[in-house]
Amino acid sequence: MNVAIWGSGYYGTKLRMILEHCDPNGKSFRAMYFVDNDEKKWGEVYLGLKILSPDTLKRSNESIDGIVIAVSNEKINDIVNQAKKIGIKRILLLPTWQYKKTDVDLNEIMEIEYEKPRLNYLEFHASEHCNLNCKGCASFCGLITEPRFIDERVLFDDLKRLKELVWGIGIIRILGGEPLLNPSLHRIVSFTRRVFPDSDLRVVTNGLLLPSLSRELINAMRCSGAVFDVSVYPPTQKRINEIKCICELNEIEYALNRIEEFYKVLDPSGKNDPHISLLNCIAPGCTLLKNGELTKCVFLQYVDLLNASFNMNFRVDNDDRINIYSDGLDGNKLVEMLNRPSGFCKYCTQNPIPYKWEAVGYKVAKEDWVIG
Ligand code: SF4
Ligand code: SF4
After folding, report:
1. CATH superfamily of 2-111
2. Which residue among 66, 237, 274, 362 is least crowded, i.e. fewest CB within 10 A of its CB?
3. How far is the CA of 211 from the centre of ligand 1 (A)?
């Protein structure tokens, strides 16, 4: 297959070398050109290939069978749309996490079903309870007193259904509660990676259980190129060297995110303009999946816990939850629905109130979340 490599920066350079190394005779992929949006590069020869502009590629379209995208994860969607517009027949991708591997397999180059959109972001809760219970946790963990795990079979069906609607997902974050409390987390990580090979896959953890990782989870994280996003709260800070050491010894990538403040946002008056609330949103674009439904954020799936515990009346309308199995739903409609403000946004104040992080265990009060 004759291809152009779209992107002549870090990823393009690596892809050119990977193809030369794994397929020197060009049996599977023969690189013919680079393509780049940077006009300063147009016409140059780089690593033996001419760098074309997208317009020139359009005119030479007949000389290639497709393109392989080689840009950072967040730019992929724009390039797919651009390539679609200029009439590229086949659009392929080597997912960005694969570039970190020392033994890339060309079978990992995937074809993009570009008639479908890509979802930017998805998160789901592997466990709903937590071993830390911060004051005002957005997932209301302090109100969950029994272990609660995601139903794996439902999750796997939901992920497969989503794959029918979108060609990929930019970032997938597996969180909770504390996801490491879920003994099946390794299966969840591996399955998610199989369905969405293109995603930046992350497990969000408070890190307290990282020193006792199971061998299965270590393998699943490594093989999936998944990253630990460690939320560094004061109790995590005390174990930070141990956490770093465990991740490095096991060759698992990690990112540390120091958190010292939380925000109180829920305003029971419901008198806020949802459009303005969304502009000031503390969790923009954090699409959540639970039991066959997508919501704009975690509140819409879990606020019932707050209602039940404190006799409150935050209302979630049916329209605020998108049933991914509903008749006539396609990926474009889904993305459009997720971009609109939800009716529930009227409960989010435009002036979130910050407060210092605190662990409260199960001694919770409605004022941990609610203003006024
Ligand atoms: S660590 Fe804190 S914020 Fe994170 S899930 Fe647990 S209770 Fe919630
Ligand atoms: S309800 Fe709307 S404004 Fe509030 S956190 Fe969710 S998406 Fe953001």
Report:
1. NAD(P)-binding Rossmann-like Domain (3.40.50.720)
2. 362
3. 18
